[in-house]
Amino acid sequence: MTVAPATSATTSLRSRVLGRSRDQAKQERAVLVLHDVTKEYPNGKVALRDVDLVIPEGDFVFLVGASGAGKSTLIKLLIRDEIATKGAVVLDGQDVARLGRRQVPKMRRKIGIIFQDFKLLPNKNVWENVAFALEVTGTPRRKIRPAVDRVLALVGLSAQAEQRPSQLSGGEQQRTAIARALVHDPRLIIADEPTGNLDPLISWEILQLLLRINELGVTVMMATHNAEVVTALRKRVVALEEGRIIRDEVGGAYHRED
Amino acid sequence: MSRAWQGFWRNAVMSLAATATMVLMLLLLAGFWIIQTGLLAGLQFTEQKVNVVAYLQTNATDSQVQTLESQLQAMPEVASVTYVSRDQALAQFRQSTEAQGREDLTRYLDSNPLFASLEVKLSDPSHVRVVSDTLRADPSIRNVINIEDLVNNVLTVTGILRTVGTVLLIIVGVIALFIIINTIRLAVLARAEEIEVMRLVGASDAFIRWPFVFEGAMVGLLGATATLAILAGVAEPLSQFMAGFFRVLPLQFGSLTRDLVVLVMGTGVGLGIVGSWLSVRTYLIR
């Protein structure tokens, strides 16, 4: 069930010539739309070139590609750490480049982000690390407690709530990070190499957790090098090479199969 | 507020290092301030010692002298005029010879050889020429002691000392400023990851910034208080030393203390706030 291998050029051509209205409808339900996005860094390096990407609500997408293919840049554009040189990044109907400084934090609250190196605060215990994501949004204390307890139960860390990150295994640290990414009910979870530092068994555990979260209705985008996982799960795969999308297929493998 | 306290205690080592640096720099600054104040007082005192002495003609009448006195007092360059009569001059001379333990030779004289004089204190010693010229022009004046060259030399020296003192104080101030801001910057740098995480979970700039700013103010306040405590501890022996050293100086310890508290508190808290504001800003603007 391979969708037409859509290079960016054919996608925009198709939307222009054929299915404009259908694509339009799809984009309205989309969590994330990238339209003709190019990112050139001040040093002249072009990290992304004419990228078109639509991620509908509830999707699970693997973002694959060699180091330097543009995965990190793509993620930085989504969280508005960088701004696209050309084109539009639309998250939940909002063009992120048009946001004022004060709106950026609010936009980020629609995203939950998970990193290879977890990025937990070492001075806070598991519970506090997760609660932190709600504290920054000014959520009242009485609402924080049940929400944190709920996500910790979901990721299976209720028993470790009082421990510091340094006392946890890698898998437990990553599950803490997932709980933190999830606690404020984001529209999109971005996982940047979440299994990069974990052994295969633990990696599968983390994958299972992300899949379960996806089943609960949260859109997940996961950048990864883990070919085994990508090929086994047969989810949508978006492959980047030298800043272009070279492949976008549903049910794809890590490598090209034809 | 509670997050700022937390930040302070959980990073106790960095906070204490920053506070200690703050204390040392403020002590340095306060020390130079005290020295500068003493120096300025000393210079002012030296300059105030400049007075123009004009000897009167023996035949000058009282009314002539009084006219001249009021004429001088009307001049803006003149601080005060003192009339010393011939008898007073002799008494002063005798007193000073006796104080020096020398024989009083005046008792061999049958008449008073000294002249009455006007001692004119100047409001500003650089105006010595105007005053001297006015005195010389008056017919009741016998002669005016020429101290213009001496005064000019004194003024050159005091001017240099003033400039050097001010420049040193500014240099020390700038050094203290940079070291304090840099130390706070390091303390913030140690928590760059925390700031990054806060940004990623969608904390507003104000939410990130304000505990750091408050912490900076706390470091400043603590540093300033410690500095003032140390200064208060050494104030007694120091003021005794100063009083012994500058015995004659009209140092006003009241206003010096007040200025020091303002200086130390203002610099400490101000730099704490500004330093952390600037340091956090580098992470917020992207």
What does this structure look like?
The complex is a heterodimer of chains A (258) and B (286). Chain A has a six-stranded mixed β-sheet with strand order 6-7-8-3-9-10, sandwiched between helices. A four-stranded antiparallel β-sheet of chain A has the order 2-1-4-5, sandwiched between helices. In chain A, helix 7 (170-182) packs parallel to helix 8. Chain A is globular and about 45 Å long. Chain A starts with 7 loop residues before the first helix and ends in a 9-residue tail after the last strand. Chain A has helices at 8-17, 20-28, 71-78, 103-108, 126-135, 141-155, 170-182, 200-215, 227-233, and strands at residues 30-40, 46-56, 60-64, 86-91, 94-95, 111-114, 188-192, 219-223, 236-241, 244-249. Chain A has 258 residues and is α/β, with parallel strands linked by helices. With 286 residues, chain B is an alpha+beta fold. Chain B folds into two domains: 2-45 and 154-284, no CATH class; 51-146, Alpha-Beta Plaits, CATH 3.30.70. Chain B is built from nine helices and four strands, in the order ααβαβαβαβαααα. Chain B has helices at residues 2-10, 12-48, 62-74, 86-99, 128-137, 148-189, 192-200, 205-245, 253-284, and strands spanning 51-56, 78-84, 117-122, 141-144. Chain B has a four-stranded antiparallel β-sheet. In chain B, 28% of the residues are buried. The mean pLDDT of chain B is 82. The interface between A and B is medium-sized, with 22 and 15 residues.
**What is the CA–CA distance across the termini of chain B?**
26 Å
Q: SSE order of chain A in H/E notation? A: HHEEEHEEHEHHHEHEHEE
Oligomeric nature of the chains: heterodimer
Shape of chain A: globular
Classify the beta-strand content of chain A into a percent band.
Answer: 15-25%
Main beta sheet of chain A, described? 6 strands, mixed
CA-based gyration radius of chain A: 18 Å
* Cα shape of chain B: elongated
- The number of helical runs of chain A is 9
Task: Provide the β-strand percentage band of chain B.
Answer: 5-15%
Low-confidence stretches of chain B: none
Structural class of chain B: alpha+beta
The rounded distance between the terminal residues' Cα atoms of chain A is 13 Å
Order of strands, widest sheet of chain A: 6-7-8-3-9-10
Number of strands of chain A: 10
Most extensive chain interface and residues per partner: A-B, 22 and 15 residues
Number of domains of chain B: 2
* Share in helix of chain A: 25-40%
Q: From the helix content, strand content and strand pairing of chain A, which structural class follows? A: alpha/beta
Main beta sheet strand tally, sense and closure of chain B = 4 strands, antiparallel
